[in-house]
Amino acid sequence: MSETKNIANREIMEELRGADVRPSTTRVHVLKYLREHRNHPTVDRIYQNLIETLPGLSRTSVYNTIGVLERAGLVRPLSMEGGEMRYDAFTEDHAHFQCERCGAIFDVPLNASGIAGDALREFRVKRLDVLFWGLCPLCAKEHRES
Ligand SMILES: [Zn+2]
Ligand SMILES: [Zn+2]
Known about the structure:
The protein is of the alpha+beta class. It has 5 helices and 5 strands; from the N terminus they run H-H-H-H-E-E-E-E-E-H. Strands 4-3-5 form a 3-stranded mixed β-sheet, with no helix packed on it. Strand 3 and strand 4 form a beta hairpin. The relative contact order is 0.12. It binds zinc ion (2 copies). The site of one zinc ion has 6 residues, from strand 3.
């Protein structure tokens, strides 16, 4: 499905320390999962994927950990249609495309300079959210064939 790469725990621990976050086991695993999977998971999906490795884990602790990582600027929240929250550990500006059929969320490279011109001069922009909505290539293909 989505691309997976393996990152050493040590690397993740260094990143947490660099952001002044104590690298507890849960924090290391949650950030590692988000770094290794660019699938913009929900808290529940993170929980389902980590429960085997961390048997004492609860949804609440995943939720709280996400909160800590978010405040440290390591994770960015995405609020999707219907109020569903997804999380992204890639905090550089990029847009998203959500497929209305399969629900998958894709990263889209974005160059925001030049979009606003002067329009935002007096605003303090804290975050950029650009969401495209429609059919992913796979679903578009199936749609044509059915
Ligand atoms: Zn799709
Ligand atoms: Zn993303």
